[in-house]
Amino acid sequence: MSFGHLQPLFPGESGVDQLVEIIKDDVAGCLEYNVDLVEELDRKQNASVALPMDTFKCHLIREPIGVVGLITPWNYPLLMATWKVAPALAAGCAAILKPSELASLTCLELGEICRELTPMLTRLHSLEAVPHKVMIAAAQNVKSVTLELGGKSPIVVFDDVDIDKVVEWMLFGCFWTNGQICSATSRLLVHESISEEFLEKLVKWAKTIKICDPLEEGCRLGPKVSAGQYEKVLKFVSTAKSEGATILCVGECPQPSLVMLLSELANDTHYGLGAAVISKDLERCERVSKGFEAGIVWINCSQPCFSQAPWGGKKHSGFGRVKKGRIYGFGSVSDPTSFLEGTSSIITSQEVVYEQDVCSLAKYDGKLKIRGMRTEDDWMDMK
């Protein structure tokens, strides 16, 4: 059985054909990228350092930092494992991978493949760990930690957009890969002058998402990862309703749920993983994007990611960055923010699907918050 058939057995993603393409492009692409970085690292060995005195010379030798412990979530189990294992191995480190107990099959298969290539590789089965326990354990041994802890990401929509295209981006950014995605732009802030039409189309499109067995052709929404997650989503909807929210779209799980709440600010959250802004006014987009308290900012798009760009969050979404640069093991004074912009005016998510072979619409795991707004200052919390 191929990776593409194994992955839908764990409900982070749906659609075998799409997953085969994701594995071929994203997973293989990540491995190939890190192979290229190895060659770059080799070229930088013994690199000279300019000194203010000619009587001294200096050069640098980079060495692996040692054993790297890697804990990955149940959504994107194979891709998340590749993101972390590939740079660790490329840097010459030993990697110990602890996948989620809810979605470990593809990671175990990855381990079997690595075992064939590296006979010394062994499996490690570990108890569930939480971030603060990891940090405490690391601090006691003076070890560095990088944490990516998910988020509650906003998407801000202004009144100068093509509503049909942006509704598509909204659904793509929120329900892609069953909605079980750390960076899902699940909090919508839409300009009040277009809010009525926008919400009408959003609800209509959400109800057309195909819900079925993830191995069935054309699947866009599969099951939840566990009974606990199922109950959690139902509780989110119930809590929102008890707090006065308007339920725009809800049904028996895994029916996508759309919940409307008022008085929402883009930065009004403990999290800071991703954020998106959509407008035809690129100067406005630039101003707004710089005000987000997030590690990844999308401009006129939502969710594209690349091995070449850093990935990570701010605030309770964690600290440190994965992907490019992790191979060198450098410490940094501050974490960079990635700005990814759709360059051909406002492209559709389907264009991204075709160009990047990413998975399409899927489910939602939380509350979609919507409010009318008038100006940038209305919603942006500039603390």
UniProtKB/TrEMBL annotation:
Organism per entry: Lactuca virosa
Full protein name: Aldehyde dehydrogenase domain-containing protein
InterPro entries, A to Z: Ald_DH/histidinol_DH, Ald_DH_C, Ald_DH_CS_CYS, Ald_DH_CS_GLU, Ald_DH_N, Aldehyde_DH_dom
One Gene Ontology biological process: cellular detoxification of aldehyde
Active site positions, chain numbering: E148
Aldehyde dehydrogenase domain span: 26-116, 130-252, 264-323
Alphabetized UniProt keyword annotations: NAD, Oxidoreductase
Presence of the UniProt keyword rRNA-binding in the record: no
GO molecular function, one term: aminobutyraldehyde dehydrogenase (NAD+) activity
NAD among keywords: yes
Name of one Pfam family that matches: Aldedh
Family: Belongs to the aldehyde dehydrogenase family.
Superkingdom of the organism of origin: Eukaryota
Pathway listed: Amine and polyamine biosynthesis; betaine biosynthesis via choline pathway; betaine from betaine aldehyde: step 1/1
